[in-house]
Fold each of these.
Amino acid sequence: MVQERLARVFQEIFSDHALVVSDTTTADDVPGWDSLAHINLIYALETEFDVRIPDERLASFSNVGELRACIEELSGAR
Amino acid sequence: MVDPLRTGPRSLEELAGAAAMTEVPTAGLCRDLALAHERAGDPAAAVRWALAMTDAGGDLTCWSAAAGVLRRAFPAAGLTLRPARVAVLGSYTTAQFAALLPLAAARAGVAVEVYECGYGQYRQEVLDPASGLHRFRPDVVILAVHAGDTALPSFARDPEQAVAVEAARWTSLWQIITGSLGAGVIQHTFVVPETEPFGHLARQASGARSSLLAAVNVALGLAAAGVGGAGSGSNGGAGGSRGIGGNGGAGGSRGIGGSGVGSGQVSFVDCERLAATVGKRSWFDPRYWHRSKQAVSLAHVPALARHTAAVLGAQLGTSRKCLVLDLDNTLWGGVLGEDGLAGIALGDGPAGEAFSEFQEYIALLRERGVVLAVCSKNNDADARAAFERHPAMRLRLDDFAMFSASWDDKPTQIRRIAQTLGVGLDSLVFVDDNPAEREVVRQLVPEVDVIALPKDPHEYVRTLADYPFFEPGALTAEDAARTEQYRARARAVELEASASSLEEFHRGLEMVATVVPLDELTLPRVVQLIGKTNQFNLTTRRRGAAEVAELAADPATAIICVRLADRFADHGLVAVVIARRVAAVDADADGDLADADGGLVAGTAVLDVDTWLMSCRVIGRTLECELAELIVAEARRLGCTAVRGHYLPTAKNSLVADLYARLGFQRSGAAQGGADGSTHWLLPVALTPERPGLIRVVDTRRHQPGPSEPRPPEPRSGDVGHPDAGTSAQTMQEVAG
């Protein structure tokens, strides 16, 4: 469930319905994932899942899997 | 909550089917339709849905996607918009704002090419003639700045000086932009932070930061309007230089006079108001300020883009100008043709008040230049009569540049309105409560903007106010005639502030009491007052409609119904008196007339005040004195020698225990008084109650019994101080011009 909604947010942010992200996807794999898109992405995820990602975690995501795990942890969903 | 539609890309047919099921598709659906049409190779439809999304209130992500569609599909969409080169100069991260601006501007009728200056570089870019900004040659420069970028001290020992210096920092930029760049300016006002170290004391500490910021906003407004000149000399303005510390006023404008900026070259987006509307803690999110220098929460960047685009459109002349209004359930509650004039909700009752307020808001739009037209399915004569006859009607026939009531379908009527007024269909905004009428107009005259009124009339004003594309351009020659009005209003506010006594204040209110007949229009309100008034109610006798009507039919009965209005509000029907002519001997039944010095003679008659009540909202306004006068006049008309009043105490009406005494009545039958505490009073008609003279009384009944001045009926309070009655012809010229 989280994975599906997460994927949908990615598709919206990067305006690409064909975009597929997996746990191992990194910023380098997605065209247009710059610092601005990153902020928009974090904002969209916080809104979608109604969570507040702590500042210290922001810089530590090395791939989508870690981001997903963080959201699951914060939202208590899985 | 998960949007059920968000299940990945769907076919165009599927999406169109979903859209057809709702009148106003959700923002997400609009966005999906835009994307689907783009994929299907229909750029015109793609752009249409992208623009529709902006009206459906989507979030940042939704807007970003729609902005992408517009960017890609616009060149082939065949849309003709007014082109403009727009520079965004920001004091914070404006990337999202700049990215959404083309979409918002397209909705406002403008095709923008955007230049975004480097983060924090805007002053250098303005000042450096070789900068990218100067090379870009903008038509309009948007100063998207925030309070944190002002150079104000945390506390100013000389607030006036601090405000003047800060205002000059901005007006000097305006001078270069309007001068050497030859561009217009759109300045975002400063949002005064909701955190205030001085607490409530800041209101009287003009050196406190929030006071300074508010004063800078005021000073910039005056400078842009070209009135920033000799701030201290004129009596107008906010008079900031007077009083303690020159709190928050125009005082700061001193020294920035001669800003060298012509009227109309600088416009504002009032971010302070936008932020207050959504709540300042929502408008600004400190997390995103600290993370990436977003001075406007990403949730509100779409709204900021939308409002900025509306102001841009106003500056470039693409604003809409004409409001086309339905009547039934739009300007009043109910259906005139079915419910009759007496049956529509307007003026009284919660729904009636809501519709009155909506009319009032529309009247104000009209006063500031929006052209009004009626488009209704009604008999023309009936619809017009409603405006002429209904006592609570705030809008008048001559407020409308065109009055179209017929049984033609609305698209036909709307085309005729545009043609008659000589305006384009893209100048019109249609307001109707009926979803079917709205839909047919959307389908058949798509150039017209359609505002979907909610079901609840209490939300009408906000719904209309949220529509941003009536934004007026600069206040220019067209408004010159209205200047006097603004001045009159300013004088009134000054009067209120300076009134040294209650009497002076009341006099300044310019109260008008209108005596209206008891008829099918007023009866429901009269019965309502009789049924619920507790405080100012001498006898608290409750009666139903039938009983009141029966009394009224008796020629020996006098019924006085009074509406009260003042310069600021129409209070509606607020006072009712029912009095009956009775033989003096009957009147003596529970008293002792011989005691009173009324000169009563056996065989003569007195006017017995059976019921006297007033709505609590007008207590303390001396209206009771005017009513006493009216009662005495009725007594004379009916050949009575005296007026007899009663006070029957209840748990709630002690307010009026001494009313008759205050009005100069003599206590009658003082000895008995009544075990229940009731008292009885007499006033010979030879005596005239004292009138403070603070209220002008106008009698609109057929017989004119009273002392009322022989003036024509006063239709509504709003006329006072508004010499600009306006004519249709004038209005049409304004549109054409």
Amino acid sequence: MENPGEYPFTRGIYPLMYKKQLWTMRQYAGFSSAEESNQRYLYLLRQGQTGLSIAFDLPTQIGYDSNHPLARAEVGKVGVPIDTLKDMEILFQGIPLDQASTSMTINATAPILLAMYIALAKKNKVPSEKLRGTVQNDILKEYVARGTYIFPIKPSVRLATDLIEYCSRYLPQWNTASISGYHMREAGCSAVQEVAFTLANGIAYVQAALDKGLDVDVFAQRLSFFFASHTNFLEEVAKFRAARRLWAKIMKERFKAKDDRSCMLRFHAQTCGHTLTREQPLNNISRITLQALAAVLGGAQSLHTNSYDEAYATPSEEAVTIALRTQQIIARETGIIDYPDALGGSYSLESLTDSLGEQAQKYIAKIDEMGGAASAIENGFIQREIQESSYNAQKEIEEKKKIVVGLNEFQSPYQKIGRLTKVDSGAREKQIKLLLQIKKERNQQKTKLALNHLKAVAETNENTMPAFIECAENYATIGEICNVLRKFFGEYKENCWKEGAGNG
Amino acid sequence: MKIRVLLAKPGLDGHDRGIKIIARALRDAGMEVIYTGLRQTPKMIVKTALEESVDVIGLSILSGAHLELLMEIMKELKRKELKEVMVVAGGIIPEEDIPLLEKAGIRAVFGPGSTTKEIIEFIQKDFP
């Protein structure tokens, strides 16, 4: 078997792995306003952290201004609200954009948020080649899980690919997509399905970029992945290894990549929120620890550990700290980091890796036969597969075929949990006030021109990124920008069901 | 007569694993289930409840926007004089918010770990 750092990278993408560089401990967190987030980032930077991770609120993710009727109750709830460039200016005040690495969990509106970031850098005289960071920009999985889509699948994939193309020219250090299995796993799919559906989505993006005439060895190394780390310990370690091996072969054999870096599957991992129980909540710390350990033994490049109180509410400061400490204990106390792919060679792990890889490959072949991931989502295949798995998993728990400690076995009297986080609802009124003020003060003529230009570009095959940047620079709101596209592209409507019609 | 249930996702939250499991379990238990899908306003939900003349409304929220949205739905139901409909909720809803929701007329809140069996029994008890 090959060594760590050798194609097809089953054992890890670097020869020395964590002996040389630890994984990045990247905790995803949302704050209810740009000011509050800015304070938090400045604090983290003073502590020596260079990686910022931004959670946006749902209206920002779905392209509604904070005063839209559908947005009102959600402003600032799961992250920071961004209506215009002004909010980005506040968010990054005092932060040198040429030194920070900024990870943005954003999909349908990824090109718009990145355009705002580029516009801000331009204002601060930072050349775009120096910008470093990541946008999730994985729209396909939004139709299957997570749900922050706006437009139909085809124009959405075009926007995602426009971003990939633009960055390959002007932001060479930017990670253009974080192709995510995490949300599909959380929605209920199995380990095999997670690998298969994620890589199938990856294939769709690579193909779309190639169809635009891009060189695989230029853009492919900026694609990254995001997986869940679940409770079945060995299966999870094997899953990460199998995914790496499979992707390397896909890139080399199918897409003819020549550069090894194009074949390396780099991934972020997160422990599984869905496995956390309300019952005996402190047990969740043990679950999170084991899941984190699997991610590390599986060779993750960065990791988010969940908080033990997530079945109750948005995590408390104390719970978030314990989650981070868990990673630090694994990194500094266990000694695991001295051995790249420490479990490699074990019969159980190797045979699990082989069989997961083979099963995932069969699934991918099936999706290929349907015409690829976009078609498999359009015809509901992936959604049905996930729902079937999630329903069966629930039944297994209720029938005690699967034991969840404290939930269906080893129960003990109910323990209440204290110190929950509350979101300040005053933030919304402030946000709306700022939005209305910016809309009044900006140069209306220029905003209108920029929006009209976007419309004109959308109607052609031209890259939309420059037009988004122009809109951002002229303080068009995220709602205005998306409305231009909604009119032209239309909106995606989930296929819902009524009595026996099947699935959603 | 079959029990008619409307399941809905108010607000912009996209977590639909739970509600889809409930939809299937209630249907398998012999109820008629209508699922609205994501991104429903309180007005849309109440309108559908009226049109479909449902007996039960099940609402799922995991984004933290539950207080405002659920209260609005209860008000809208009152305005349309749909007082007979049984309303239950589920999702990530902190315990301290539950008394407020119950006072507004929500009959039960089913958090993580709830079984489909207890939800089915809770509904069936009201419609013997």
